[in-house]
Amino acid sequence: MITLTKEDGPADLDGVTHLSIGVSWDPTAGSSGGLMGKLRRQAGTDLDLIAIAMQGSDPVRLAGLDSLDPLGNGSLVHSGDNQTGRGDGDDETVTVEFARVPANVTSIVFVAAAFKKGSSFQKARNVSIKVYDATGGTTQQVADIWPSMLSNDNGCAVAKAIRAGGAWKLEVINQTGRIKQADERDLMRFAVNK
Fold this sequence. Notes:
The chain is mostly beta strands. It has helices at residues 34-43, 184-192; strands spanning 11-12, 18-27, 48-55, 58-63, 76-78, 92-97, 107-113, 124-133, 140-145, 155-164, 167-177.
């Protein structure tokens, strides 16, 4: 098992044919208890995991939000939108099958964001982003990324898969920033700068 951290720099993904990234979070009631707190927990908060396929410095496809298979061949697949954070395990995942990624895609940037209006990292607890080697149909965790709870930002650049000739490398970024909510162009500009 390889363990990746931000400080390690890009890691070779030799032998990794499938990579999955998952985000999970717990809904919170804020400072409310009682009935209002219970209602807020049931409503949850909506975080989003988004993968942006890049061609050089240009974003060309987006997996997440309402796009589950943006390359149309199953090489970059999103599990679907979880709007509450309720449930066990990862709330949203993106899986990459490297051999099927079109040759013009040079990198894939993974972003976790409170993207929709009214959503917020501050309304979620225990935000965790996990990176898995999903080769052979199994999932072996290789990184666990925890964005800072002190940040007022609403986006976190999680990691970047980079094509290096015929192989791929993965770099853990774990850098937060502001994204204008419900603005896909601003989301893509955020990814381009990573």
